[in-house]
């Protein structure tokens, strides 16, 4: 089994705040809907969204993590499953909203992932997806050994446009607080996309 990069709420730091804020943002779109949290990791985000959604399905490739999630977050409307985002074990047109945070940079084939998201998403569904901005890592000379493919903003937009017609790019940055906003205030941001077909 290969090493996996995960956010754990027990290690409080800026990364945790950034991840939690993404789920707070996503909660605005999930009320009374069927949600897929793709690559749900330790499950805290799936659990949070389940407070608003009809049902949340959390999927992750790591069986140990999923088994822990099932024990920690035991709710009727929260279903955790082991599986790959390359081959989602769900029916076509099943989900109203898919959230996938900081995932696509960990896979070799982003097209295959987005194709699967498109397949299981309802025709009027929403994909909320985030990924690091490659330009920031270049500027800061950061190399993340867990990332297989990082994207410049234009590359990420073009990739999304292969599968979705209405793309909204939001940006996330840390100031005195962590906010998600529509207008890019400076280039040192991680971009965050809400895709509405």
Low-confidence stretches: none
Radius of gyration from CA coordinates: 16 Å
Average pLDDT value?
Answer: 86
In which order are the strands of the major sheet placed? 3-2-1-4-5-8-6-7
Order of helices and strands: HEHEHEEHEHHEEE
What class do helices, strands and sheet pairing give?
alpha/beta
Percent helix among the residues? 25-40%
The percent range for strand residues is 25-35%
Question: What's the tally of helices?
Answer: 6
What is the subunit organization of this protein?
A: single chain
Describe the largest sheet: 8 strands, mixed
What does this protein look like?
With 197 residues, the chain is of the alpha/beta class. It contains 6 helices and 8 strands. It has helices spanning 14-26, 44-49, 63-72, 110-120, 134-139, 153-161, and strands at 34-38, 55-60, 78-82, 95-101, 121-130, 166-174, 178-181, 190-196. An 8-stranded mixed beta sheet has the order 3-2-1-4-5-8-6-7. Helix 3 (63-72) links the parallel strand 2 and strand 3 (78-82). The protein starts with 13 loop residues before the first helix and ends with a strand. The model has no long low-confidence stretch (mean pLDDT 86).
Short summary:
The chain has helices spanning 14-26, 44-49, 63-72, 110-120, 134-139, 153-161, and strands spanning 34-38, 55-60, 78-82, 95-101, 121-130, 166-174, 178-181, 190-196. With 197 residues, the protein is an alpha/beta fold.
């Amino acid at each position: 089994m290969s090493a996996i990069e995960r956010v754990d709420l027990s290690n409080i730091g800026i990364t945790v705040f950034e991840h939690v804020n993404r789920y707070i943002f996503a909660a605005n779109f999930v009320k009374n809907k069927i949600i897929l949290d793709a690559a749900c990791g330790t499950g805290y985000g799936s659990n949070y969204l389940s407070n608003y959604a009809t049902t949340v399905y959390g999927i992750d490739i790591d069986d140990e993590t999923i088994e822990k999630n099932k024990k920690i977050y035991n709710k009727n409307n929260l279903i955790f499953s082991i599986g790959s985002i390359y081959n989602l074990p769900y029916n076509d047109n099943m989900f109203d909203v898919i959230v996938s945070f900081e995932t696509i940079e960990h896979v070799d084939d982003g097209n295959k992932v987005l194709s699967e998201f498109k397949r299981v998403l309802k025709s009027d569904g929403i994909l909320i997806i985030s990924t690091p901005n490659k330009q920031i890592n270049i500027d800061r000379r950061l190399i993340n050994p867990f990332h297989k493919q990082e994207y410049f903003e234009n590359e990420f937009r073009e990739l999304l446009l292969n599968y979705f017609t209405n793309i909204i790019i939001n940006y996330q940055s840390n100031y005195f607080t962590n906010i998600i906003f529509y207008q890019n205030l400076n280039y040192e941001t991680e971009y965050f996309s809400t895709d509405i077909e």
